Amino acid sequence: MTTTCNPIIERAAANGVSLDMRGSVALVRLCRPAKRNALNDGLIEALRDVFQNLPAEARAAVIHGEGDHFCAGLDLSELKERDAGEGIHHSRGWHVALNAVEQGRVPVVAALHGAVVGGGLELASAAHIRVADDSTFFALPEGTRGIFVGGGGSVRIPKLIGAARMTDMMLTGRVYNAQDGERVGLAQYLVPTGESLNKAIELATRIATNAPLTNFALTHALPRIAEQPADHGLFTEALMASIAQAAPEAKARVRAFLEGKAAKVQKS
Ligand code: 1HE
Predict the structure, then answer these.
(1) Of residues 77, 69, 62, 72, the one with CA closest to residue 29
(2) Which tens digit of pLDDT belongs to each residue from 224-253?
(3) What pTM value is reported for the model?
């Protein structure tokens, strides 16, 4: 495992977000366990800076939390003095940071455990794959705190579970355990307690071996195509497909298969 000595990354570490490289996988860690990784302004800026400045060798990333919980959401101690105008800028700052996760250079896998609540679930939903362990629980306590989501949750979470389930979580304070969370789509993988980081690293290591243009197509083109009217989507798909298949790496991979040198798809 290697660490980097970029001053932006060092400042992020001082604000509670560390970065370590494990081969071509960037391990990004929320390091504020005493406050259950609650996201204060410094931490949100640090997340933005880390994802905007991943080392060139990074081809996939994992985000995880130190301590017993992934993330307790917004740091509520910073909420009390903010007026409406400041609230808008605060929310927009979260949008920039979580867009840096979702629309950055590499696919991101979130390793979840313990509380994944409020802004913590908003952060998890900005990742491309979520791995929960059996200790994980999901909630949106904003409703009971008298506030609303502000970190992109109203855009991203309904895409995972539908607006009806999100409405229920916020109106009633419903908490999903790990099994039910995986069932409804809050996580794509469920592993035993303590195993989510290992599983996320395993997935990210595999993702890192994909052709970079394929990963780009999946993280940047697919979400846009899915939102386009069908005719526009099909057109964008054709453009993206032709760009991806024209890359020398794609041609080399297809040739390797045709020459019997690449792995077949195996029944799972
Ligand atoms: C915090 C926060 C926080 C913990 N802001 N300080 N999020 C919430 O409403 C969730 C609030 N947190 C909790 O429900 C619980 O803390 C947990 C279930 C996550 C963890 O429980 P536990 O028993 O392990 O820890 P704890 O004893 O509650 O908390 C330990 C310390 O962390 C304690 O501080 P201490 O100084 O007394 O030790 C807590 O005050 C502190 N702490 N969570 C500030 N969230 C962009 S908009 C997003 C809007 C939202 O995210 S709203 C949802 C906010």
Answers:
(1) 62
(2) 999 999 999 999 999 999 999 999 999 999
(3) 0.96
